[in-house]
Design goal:
- The protein is an all-alpha fold.
- About 70% of the residues lie in helices and about 0% in strands.
- It has helices at about 20-65, 70-80.
- Helix 1 runs antiparallel to helix 2.
Length: about 80
């Protein structure tokens, strides 16, 4: 009766010889690969975003210094904090 589900115990049937369990395992592997790929892409985008934010902050600091809004000491202190 249970052989109609492809249990594969010595019968050579089903996915990877495991029938329904083999199919679930393969689906789990596919989902895991997709999940890891998405996390990798998100990580790369996050790194680019942090670099852009840092560059923008430095540009704002330079502009404030050029307009005379902050002193030399303040500029150097804030610059060290950004780097």
């Amino acid at each position: 009766m249970w052989q109609c589900f492809g249990s594969g115990f010595g019968h050579g049937g089903g996915f990877m010889g495991g029938g329904f369990v083999g199919l679930l395992f393969m689906l789990l592997v596919v989902v895991l690969v997709i999940f890891l790929f998405v996390k990798l892409v998100q990580g790369l985008n996050s790194t680019k975003s942090r670099m852009t934010d840092k560059d923008d902050s430095m540009e704002i600091l330079k502009n404030r210094y050029a307009r005379g809004e902050i002193s030399d000491e303040e500029f150097q202190r804030m610059k060290r904090m950004l780097l």
